[in-house]
Design brief:
Elements (H helix, E strand, L loop, with lengths): L3 H10 L13 H11 L8 H17 L2 H13 L22 H10 L6 H16 L18 E3 H18 L4 H18 L10 E3 L19 H17 L5 H20 L6 E2 L14 E2 H16 L8 H15 E3 L5 E3 L2 E2 L10 H6 L2 E2 L3 H18 L2
Antiparallel strand pairs: 1-2, 3-4, 5-6, 7-8
The structure holds 2-acetamido-2-deoxy-beta-D-glucopyranose (8 copies).
Length: about 375
């Protein structure tokens, strides 16, 4: 790290643009098995969903039957044979609790199993969306009643990726549903997008009742990296299943490509991205390069390229971020496991949403909101490299 010219030369000799020392052991399954050794539990909370999705992606790519059995059994353990999802409250409306639906749909589809209990549980979540409290323009409230009339970028990942995947399996010709999914993104774009930087503010308050709401757009004041990370990933995941012949498709695709441009321009020379991304905050006292969003952006760029949504030229952006993650965010423990550092615990619009608030939140070790996306990114790097 102190001799960038030398390390670049070494990497070039090894015939790869990536850190070459550990290529015999894929980082995806390495981080996944490290997490198993830490004994984390599953429930219907989105952080558990993300960790288990990371494990499942790593296991599937490397055909690791014991890791895959772990992920499959974990998801199965929270769905009763009659299709009741443990911990789910059908009258509590928080978008965070919808994300687990993606884990269920994965194992519903995997190996053609079509297990009825997953279909029933997923249908429960789908029907809950039909009852969801909405803003006057039709956006899902982030959480009721506390975040009334608010949409956050995070919520798009939590709910609309499930909504789209479910509809692609069970209601593929439901145009009303496809339009409704695109509307969620349209509303975020209308209120949160900065057309100069091409980045998006964290969220907006449609009735402008939140203390932080911009008097014109209702937007919150700052661009928070993890919210943008969830949103970038959501665009890739939703476009993967969205019918290309519907008008919503080209709008979503434009949202993705313009954000890809904004993120490339916002990338720090280190390869990572700042916690608070809007000018003039990058580099300011208290701000730092944050690991969860760096992992999410890397994943979404690589997957977006792989499935033909983004130009291949963005690969350099992702590879630079990947190198940073291996150097700075992956921690090599003496017992051979990996830990994950540098992830901010939370970023919420429940308070004043000021710069001081965001940079005042602590970082956590082995936070699944960062380690899960690192596993996602690692699977894409390994796919790209044929590892
Ligand atoms: C490879 O892994 C070892 C621990 O097994 C670690 O010390 C080393 O820094 C890693 N190297 C790279 C380039 O990631
Ligand atoms: C390996 O070391 C880390 C860090 O000390 C620890 O958290 C983890 O539980 C250890 N894992 C095993 C399998 O001993
Ligand atoms: C995956 O591993 C199993 C055994 O664990 C083997 O039967 C199967 O052929 C492998 N599949 C692929 C695609 O490598
Ligand atoms: C489904 O099974 C769970 C756990 O076995 C039980 O608590 C619940 O009452 C059952 N629900 C229905 C509708 O049968
Ligand atoms: C479900 O959520 C509603 C709304 O927040 C709440 O009033 C109710 O007590 C919750 N039910 C359970 C069983 O927790
Ligand atoms: C189609 O989607 C709309 C909006 O989500 C929903 O209200 C309706 O029940 C769905 N129709 C069918 C047949 O599933
Ligand atoms: C939009 O981004 C530009 C460039 O970073 C910045 O100068 C401007 O203040 C931003 N606008 C808002 C409303 O945040
Ligand atoms: C905003 O909240 C943070 C704590 O979350 C506090 O430190 C800061 O002083 C508050 N700023 C304003 C302007 O109220």
């Amino acid at each position: 790290m102190h001799f960038p010219a030398l390390s670049l030369a070494l990497l070039t000799c090894a015939g790869t643009t990536l850190a070459a020392a550990n290529t015999t052991r894929p980082y995806s399954t390495w981080m996944a098995s490290s997490f198993l050794s830490k004994g984390q539990a599953i429930n219907n909370h989105y952080v558990a969903s993300v960790i288990h999705e990371g494990i499942q992606k790593a296991a599937t790519l490397h055909n690791d039957s014991s890791l895959l059995a772990y992920a499959s059994n974990a998801v199965s353990s929270i769905v009763s044979s009659n299709g009741t999802l443990k911990g789910w409250n059908s009258t509590f409306y928080t978008l965070d609790d919808i994300r687990i639906g993606n884990n269920m749909l994965y194992f519903w589809d995997a190996e053609g199993r079509k297990e009825k209990k997953y279909e029933i549980a997923a249908k429960g979540l789908r029907e809950q969306l039909n009852r969801w409290p909405r803003t006057p323009s039709g956006g899902f409230w982030h959480r009721a009643p506390i975040y009334k009339n608010q949409m956050w970028l995070d919520g798009i990942y939590m709910a609309d990726t499930f909504y789209a995947t479910y509809v692609s399996y069970f209601e593929p010709t439901n145009i009303t549903a496809w339009d409704d999914i695109a509307l969620q993104f349209d509303l975020i774009e209308e209120h949160c997008r900065n057309h100069t930087s091409n980045l998006l503010q964290h969220g907006y308050s449609e009735d402008k009742a939140a203390v932080w709401a911009d008097p014109v757009t209702g937007a919150s004041p700052h661009v928070w990296d993890r919210a943008v990370g969830w949103y970038f990933v959501a665009l890739v995941e939703v476009l993967q299943v969205y019918p290309a012949d519907l008008p919503g498709y080209s709008r979503l695709h434009e949202y993705l490509t313009t954000l890809a441009d904004g993120l490339k321009r916002a990338q720090d020379v280190s390869g990572g991205w700042w916690l608070v991304m809007d000018e003039p905050y990058p580099g300011m006292k208290g701000n730092y390069i944050e690991s969860s969003a760096t992992a999410m952006f890397t994943y979404a760029y690589l997957k977006g390229i792989r499935i033909g949504l983004l130009e291949a030229s963005y690969k350099d952006v992702a590879l630079k971020a990947w190198d940073l993650m291996l150097d700075d965010f992956v921690q090599y423990e003496t017992n051979g496991t990996l830990s994950w550092t540098g992830t901010v615990e939370v970023g919420s619009l429940s308070g004043n949403a000021t710069y001081e608030y965001y940079v005042g939140v602590k970082k956590a070790l082995n936070d699944g909101k960062g380690a899960g996306p690192f596993m996602y990114a690692a699977t894409e790097i390994e796919l790209a490299q044929g590892l």
